[in-house]
From TrEMBL:
Homotetramer; dimer of dimers. The record marks 44, 107 as: Part of a proton relay during catalysis. The keyword Lyase applies. Transmembrane segments: none annotated. Gene3D superfamilies: Aldolase class I (3.20.20.70). GO terms for molecular function: 4-hydroxy-tetrahydrodipicolinate synthase activity. Pyruvate binds at residues 45, 203. It catalyses: L-aspartate 4-semialdehyde + pyruvate = (2S,4S)-4-hydroxy-2,3,4,5-tetrahydrodipicolinate + H2O + H(+). This is 4-hydroxy-tetrahydrodipicolinate synthase. Catalyzes the condensation of (S)-aspartate-beta-semialdehyde [(S)-ASA] and pyruvate to 4-hydroxy-tetrahydrodipicolinate (HTPA). The keyword DNA repair does not apply.
Length: 293
């Protein structure tokens, strides 16, 4: 089972929007050095929705090759068309990814039965561990706990990224699924609390800029050290909040650029972080010590 702090990695881009393969390698080395437990490539934070299918596959291949087995690699392969998700998942398996992360179909608003059949079809088509991803705030599609429990019985569906931020619902889900089925948080502000309730880790946006602290907090929570985990998490609460001043990954890409981790590139329809937000996010970064005054 993959556990701990799993960074939802940005896809670094040049100012013209081209994928920056050199910086992608540098980011991977940065995360491994800082103690990140696993890398999620081309998820929401990795701008999966604006990459071409070829770019999507190329980034996953590069991440797998550069990581070279040092930490697990989870490939974002979800789509709103089942056949497309199957194609992306097959490509990720061929690349050597350890698992795939599949977001609920967006825009077309399937029923709960449609969600069940969608994920079941992908799991049956591609023999690789698969993690469901529920983020209704972005997809207009909310997979209910009952549907997740049904899917947890499918052989190679091994977990879910729960980005609802609803701790009561998350706790109920953890109690309802088999012990070998992993529930990960996809909501940084509540991630430590979900781990303390039995979650297995955090697929984190904040880890892009504070990987060491996020990893240490996850380790403490997994070890049951409630007090220290909460204390450490509280020290980066301002980061959690300010990284969502605008739609993810707009703020985190700006923050990574300020740290010299990547160029300022981002693709339309996403735009650079609005200037009025710069001060608040920069102050939060200074407070944590990841940026100088």
């Amino acid at each position: 089972m993959i556990t701990g702090s799993l960074v939802a990695l940005i896809t670094p881009m040049l100012a013209n929007g081209a994928v920056d393969t050199k910086k992608l390698d540098d980011l991977i080395e940065f995360h491994i050095k800082e103690g990140t437990h696993g890398i999620v490539a081309v998820g929401t934070t990795g701008e999966s929705s604006t990459l071409t299918p070829e770019e999507h596959s190329n980034v996953i291949h590069q991440v797998v090759q550069t990581v070279a087995g040092r930490v697990p690699v989870i490939a974002g392969t979800g789509a709103n068309a089942t056949h497309e998700a199957i194609d992306l998942t097959r490509s990720a398996k061929e690349a050597g990814a350890d698992a795939c992360l599949l977001v609920t179909p967006y825009y077309n608003k399937p029923t709960q039965e449609g969600l069940y059949q969608h994920f079941k079809a992908i799991a049956e088509a591609v023999d690789i561990p698969q993690i469901l991803y529920n983020v209704p705030g972005r997809t207009a599609c909310d997979m209910q706990n009952e549907t997740v429990v049904r899917l947890s019985k499918v052989k190679n569906i091994v977990g879910i990224k729960d980005a609802t931020g609803n701790l009561e619902r998350g706790e109920a889900l953890i109690k309802s699924v088999p012990t070998e089925f992993a529930v990960y948080s996809g909501d940084d502000p509540t991630a430590i609390e979900l781990i303390l309730q039995g979650g297995k880790g955090n697929i984190s946006v904040t880890a892009n800029i504070a990987p060491k602290i996020v990893a240490q907090a996850a380790e403490l929570a997994l070890a049951g050290d409630f007090e220290q985990a909460r204390r450490l998490d509280q020290s980066i609460a301002a980061l959690h909040a300010n990284l969502f001043l605008e739609s993810n990954p707009i703020p985190v890409k700006w923050a990574c650029n300020q740290m010299g981790l990547c160029d300022a590139g981002i693709r339309l329809p996403l735009t650079p972080l609005a200037e009025p937000h710069h001060s608040a996010l920069k102050q939060a970064m200074i407070q944590v010590g990841i940026l100088s005054v």
